[in-house]
Amino acid sequence: MDDETERPRNTQTESSSRLDFFSRNHLPQTARSQCWRFAQSLHPSSPVLEPPCQGHCSYTLLLPDHKTIIQFRPPKHRLDLEITSAAHAIFGTLAPHTQLLGAITFAMSSPEHDNSNNNNNKNNNPSLIVYSHSLIEGTPLPSILSAHPEYPPSHPEPSLPSLNLEPLLTSLATSYFARSYTASLPSTSPLLAQLKRRVGQTLRQRLALLRAHLPARFRPVVEDVAGVFGELEAGLPWALTHGDLCGAGVGNVFVQLRGRGRLLQDQEGGVDVELNGLIDWAEGEYLPFGVGLYGVEEVLGRMVDVPVKGGGEGDKRRRFEYHPCAGRLREVFWEELEAAVPALVEDKVLRKRVEKARLLGLLLWYGIAFDDGALDRVVCPGRDDEELQKLDLFLLGANHGGDTDTALIPEEDDASDKDSGCAFNNECDDAYAENLDCYSDSRNEAEGACPVPGKL
């Protein structure tokens, strides 16, 4: 067995993301080696590999002979085994089978660690919780798209096959969203009280916070959703929803390539991008069906680097752009979802509520900053410009200020928006939350639906 697969590599080529995980969680220098020893102890004669792509909230090792992932997570990012078990039961092989293996506690002698409040157990020693996951084979979608500078290519390179994303959208519609609808619970189910988690328990307060602190241009959308919030909460079934489908630019969507020609590289035959699985259910929870549709938008495009106007040579910023074929991909998705869930066509009230829930999902996932899992702050200009640009595009169908960097455009607004970084807590916006249901349906009918790009 190669020594490099038996123990941690200590080279300059090591990804900074792996090192950042340990320092970010105030772990000792020996922590990585201890993780390796734990993984090797499970199957001493089998190799252990370190995947090049590591998540922000965990450290992962691979046991290839057993098709098993060993994952180490700090307590604040612990997995909810009730949710991961439900995901595997509902979605089958699309979601990994997860088990709790134990925990590693690290002895710390440095006073600076003894005084730290981060990731500490009752003895002030940091720890990592250890899980095993069945391996979801495939490649993260962003890795596939990054190999194709333009999709679809206007001038295809002979060495690159043309991609077809329609099978991926079809699978997301039928194997993920339709299954979640079929397995959903009515809002009156007595089980929901135990199944609701952090976001599901605080939807009203979060919407109130967004209403108070998002930039003014988004207020009509927030008001539109607030006007029917009671219908969404009580009138939609609650479905198991992946809480980070768009993580790392849909990096949690694993795909495989299947050639339609004789060879995978057959340019004329092209390559279908097919769904293999959905990983990282750490933020998964039961939410009104339709909220999870926020994630579809990310599959319809990609993040690109664009020059900053007025900046120096080489100054760039990240911006999301739809694929030129996004309209057709969106149509494919909804055609397949409607075929799999006929109620979306037959029940116009249900369809309207699902569309509003989709807007709520976009507001929640791009309007509330992640902040290492805190989820307690509304995004604000200059600090969360990528999220604001996506909100502009996904909700309003345009980039605020055109191609100009949004951080350079101060937005005139009333006093309530001056602190758009307001932190969330369960009580700070109760007054707003109590009034959410005061907006009538007649008000929304008069104003019409919020503008959204393309067909819902």
Report a brief summary of the structure.
The protein has 456 residues and is of the alpha+beta class.
Helix-strand blueprint:
Elements: H1 16-24, H2 31-42, E1 59-63, E2 68-73, H3 81-91, E3 98-105, H4 111-114, E4 127-134, E5 139-140, H5 141-146, E6 163-164, H6 166-182, H7 192-195, H8 198-201, H9 203-213, H10 219-226, H11 229-235, E7 238-241, H12 247-250, E8 253-259, E9 271-278, E10 285-288, H13 296-299, E11 301-307, E12 316-322, H14 326-340, H15 343-346, H16 348-367, E13 368-369, E14 377-378, H17 385-396, H18 430-434, H19 441-447
Parallel strand pairs: 6-9
Antiparallel strand pairs: 1-2, 2-4, 3-4, 5-8, 7-10, 8-9, 11-12, 13-14
Q: Key terms for this structure?
A:
four-stranded mixed sheet; four-stranded antiparallel sheet; alpha+beta; disordered C terminus; disordered N terminus; 456 residues; globular; 19 helices
